[in-house]
Design brief:
Layout lengths: L7 H7 L7 E9 H12 L3 E2 L8 E10 L4 H8 L3 E10 L6 E9 L2 E9 L1 H8 L3 H7 L3 H13 L2 E15 L4 E12 L13 E2 L5 E8 L5 H9 L4 E2 L3 H16 L1
Antiparallel strand pairs: 1-6, 1-10, 1-11, 2-7, 3-4, 3-7, 4-5, 5-6, 7-8, 8-9, 8-10
Helix pairs in contact: 5-6
Length: 252
Amino acid sequence: MMEKQSTSADIGRNEGRAIKYRNEWKYCEKEADLLAVKERFAGILDYDSHAGKDGKYGIQSLYFDDYKDTCARDNVAGEGKRFKYRIRYYGAESEKLWLEKKEKKNNGCHKRKCPLSIKEYQSIIDGKAMEVFWGTEKQLLKEFCIDIVTKGFRPKVIISYQREAFVEPITNIRITLDRNVSASDEIGLFLSGNYLQVPVLEKEKHILEVKFDEVLPSYVKAVLQSDVLLQQSFSKYYLGRIALQEKKVSTV
């Protein structure tokens, strides 16, 4: 149960190409509003074929930041160009890890990814990034290891949620509904999935994301406009960090 994954050959071909940024629109809405939008999209788009029969699957992501929390600070400041690293797996398949680097430029986003073995993951967590660097040919993993060593990147928060995805392959549209977004700082339990989860959003609120290339077709735009949804700019990673901070303050 996962998003469409790139093969090793795809990853190799993409290295060195000019970066192509996709548009990414985000909305944070109540369950009832999202259900209405979902029903409309279900009538015009297909479910993600990599998901389960109900179109849903879980996502667990471990986000990294440097010793200055630059990724979080850049998000707050609205920096035109920023990035963040995360290690992700889908459902309970923690043996199938992916390293991802998501880059933002103004309103566009671009994601690079490569597979990550359990051994590579554990070495990174154990502070042996340079051993991983010298033992891999994966360019993205090498860059990550260098940033760990030179910029002090460390795991900061686990973000989990359940995703329901719709796609339009011909025009490369992807629409996702992310429910029950939670955060955890129990980093050592990431692979087990058995960690304390702190809600990130208000009760009954969830996230809708619309990702597309140059132009969003009118029939998709009509669904979004019909419900007068409010487009917003936010980061699950940043919201998760804030939720954990607020929890710590409330328990003092």
